[in-house]
Fold these 2 entries.
Entry 1:
Amino acid sequence: MRRFSVIGVVALAGCSGAGPATRDGVLHIDVSATCAGLNGAGEVRRARHPYWEPLGVGTPLKEGDWVRTLGGAAAQLELLAGGRLDVAEKSVVVIEPRATASEPTRVAIEEGELRATLTSAITVRRPGGAGQVLLAPAVYRVAAPDGPGMNVEVTRLAGDEPPVPDAGRPAGVRASPRVTSFPSSVSPGIDARLKFDPRGWVKLTWSSVAGAARYRVQTARDWSFTQELKNADVEGTSWLMRPDGLGLHVWRVAAVGAGGELGEFGYARRLFLEAETPTDLLVSPADGFTSTQAGVTFSWEARGGSYRVMVSKGSDPQRQPVFNEVTSLSTATVSALAPGTYSWGVYQEGSVLKPLFLKPRRLVVGGAKK
């Protein structure tokens, strides 16, 4: 395996388009992954930075960031979109910027190899090379062969086989119509916090999907669903989950067609079970507040440690945030937000981001006064 040089990193940064992406006039600082585990020593090089810094458990990774593992080390990167990358020793990978928010996560591997356990599709390539889309759910080995100009080697290790096209079916046999949409999670809400009752149940509900014969519910203890708790097939649009303890639980739902084909899973939702009845620690702005100024200051009740403030154009503050800042204070200010509607929340910083709110707050920016 050839040695990796810092000069190569700097040169390839331009090829990978490192740095925050600007879309629709808004600077998107996209958290695409988190370091969920590290055995040995690893390093991260932030987009447009010429130096490496230590990688640790809980380190957030944005588009344009580089990660490398040293000799005898291995890192587990949990993808926000769903899935996990197990990066082998002496490997270098890049979370590449995407042209649009709807694109799959893009990963470039400069050196070494990784194992991708996917619940959502990604695109892989060598920096500057052609991309390959890895479909999900499946497990792949992705390696960067020695020699310049060569593309990545992809080996499918496990997963559902692609559907057989109609042309390959016996005469008179038709494929069942596929489910083309996914259920939307309804309740509990985004980053819901509930008091844990060891004898109790949590009711999960979602929207119906046309053509669905039933629904597949998945629950897990981590964002990438590698620590699964239970799967269930139900005919209605609700299910009672029996939590197994305190802490983070994650759930999502997919529609199952009449022929048994599994559709795409909807967006996963986080659920936090706490020992005491949770309280809302956000102070201002109030939910639904309308600001006539582009600059907004957020405040909350501090309980010690560091906090991550996230503001998003969508309903989930963590999904494609336009503002993402860590502070040890109890306030944070964003200097300029384009006119529009946002959701925002504050999280206790750590390997798992723990919300301080009972539900994300809505903020409307109407533009500066004339």
Entry 2:
Amino acid sequence: MEKIPVTITVRGEQRRDSEVTQMEHTVEGTLEQNGEELTLRYREPEEAGLGETDTALTFRGEEAVLDRQGAVKARMRFIVGQRHRVDYRTSQGELLLEVRTTFLSHNLTQSGGKAMIRYHLTSGGQTVGNHTLKLNVKEREQ
């Protein structure tokens, strides 16, 4: 499996009540293809507030899976219309979340592309926020 060097622009938006929080950062990573499965791998930048955390985001069919390992540990599954439980672990403790995906789309290929995921997070029946994650992936010159 070839690891293609890529530049990934990550845009995130969180809405809770009337508050909107946005962030954007650009990171270097890799894109790997294994059959119909595409995986983006990158280290979260300091400004993301996740400490030393490596992220892998895998797209296969109608599903995406986000794995974080390091200071933050979590595995989030995104399938439109489904709910999934998430154990979100940090150095401050563990939080049990539920993710409900409302939109998932990507046109990623080995040369890059775009992806977008919209999802709703709850904890203990209370809304944590409505999130949008947008990725723009470009092959990096070596």
